[in-house]
Amino acid sequence: MRIAHCDQSFGVMFILPRVYPITYVERSGLSHKDQVKRLVDAGATLIQIRDKHASPGDFYRDAEAALRVARDQNVILIINDRVDIVLALKADGVHLGQTDLPPPAARRLLGDEAIIGLSTHNIEQVQVARQQPINYIAFGPIFRTQTKEAPDPTTGLRALKTVRTLTNLPLVAIGGITAENAPGVFAAGADAVATISGVVGDPDRIVENFHRMLTSAAN
Ligand code: TZP
Ligand code: MG
Prior knowledge:
The protein is an alpha/beta fold. The protein has a single domain (2-218), classed as TIM Barrel (Alpha-Beta Barrel). The protein has helices at 25-28, 32-42, 56-72, 83-89, 103-110, 123-129, 156-166, 182-187, 197-200, 206-217, and strands at residues 3-7, 14-17, 19-23, 46-49, 76-80, 93-96, 115-120, 136-139, 171-174, 192-195. The strands form two sheets. It has an eight-stranded parallel β-barrel with strand order 3-4-5-6-7-8-9-10, surrounded by seven helices. Helix 2 (32-42) crosses helix 10. Bound molecules: 4-methyl-5-hydroxyethylthiazole phosphate and magnesium ion.
């Protein structure tokens, strides 16, 4: 797999792959653990688990099982939103949104070894993110997404190009990214593409879709 970026800040050797899959139970109909299993089989090296609906207890238990699968294969597991679950499980990191714990607070809790990602949706948020103790910036939705509830307005590729001029942090593009449009996203400056429906949307095609995305990311 091509390595998009290697960042040594905060003492963590962080290798961001070109394709960054995110789990979603309602889309795939599979537990996080089963999605992670399929993604690991497909060759994913970094996976985010994201759940906006499960109770903290249910998400914790599924995350614990998913982490066991990931650890077995040396795959990095990032948990969306839940600094407490990352802390409790000693997972690899957290992906924060604009309304989650501020990155300095998450960094204080998780320490320098943790990977912290931050979602941004416009140029102003990127300007703020640049100053934060984070390991990567996510930007989007680049294209229309049907996965996120109440998404921010789509940014398009032109805004992504602008973001690329503003930061040297690893840059993850997200939102409506498919194997077809991914090459344009990389051409606009993304280091990685994060995807939910493009990979886990069809539970029987997770491996195939991940491979298609990888092939497209290599072009
Ligand atoms: N943040 C911005 S768009 C999005 C998130 C979590 C959803 C991405 O899902 P999909 O299915 O890849 O468009
Ligand atoms: Mg969040």
